[in-house]
Amino acid sequence: MATNKDDVETLLAKHEISSDAYGKEGALSLEDLAREVSLGECLLKADEEGRLLRIVNLVEVSLVVNITGGRLVLVEDEHILADGTRRRFPQRKLHGKVRPNEAPADAAWRA
After folding, report:
1. What pLDDT, on a 0 to 100 scale, did the predictor assign at position 48?
2. Phi-psi map region of 21: left, alpha, beta (phi>0 left; psi -120 to 50 alpha)
């Protein structure tokens, strides 16, 4: 299992996936991907045809407030990664990755 940046980079190369775009223009860095794998937030696994997949179990939070004359919906505007990188998500519902042995409600609170 890929548990650090070097392991992830080796796994990507094995599947002929370039790591050049990782960490650029709001994309996850290799360190972020390795952290997700080590926390169990995602799994990197080859499918039947040998293509590498990133498998993620997500929980989505829908918070809606009905106010006289209108309705407000909570959306996530941006996500700030550990390294300070900002990823913009216009009009995306709030969501989070479910970790192993974690209840979806707990993942929703973390989101």
Report:
1. 94
2. alpha
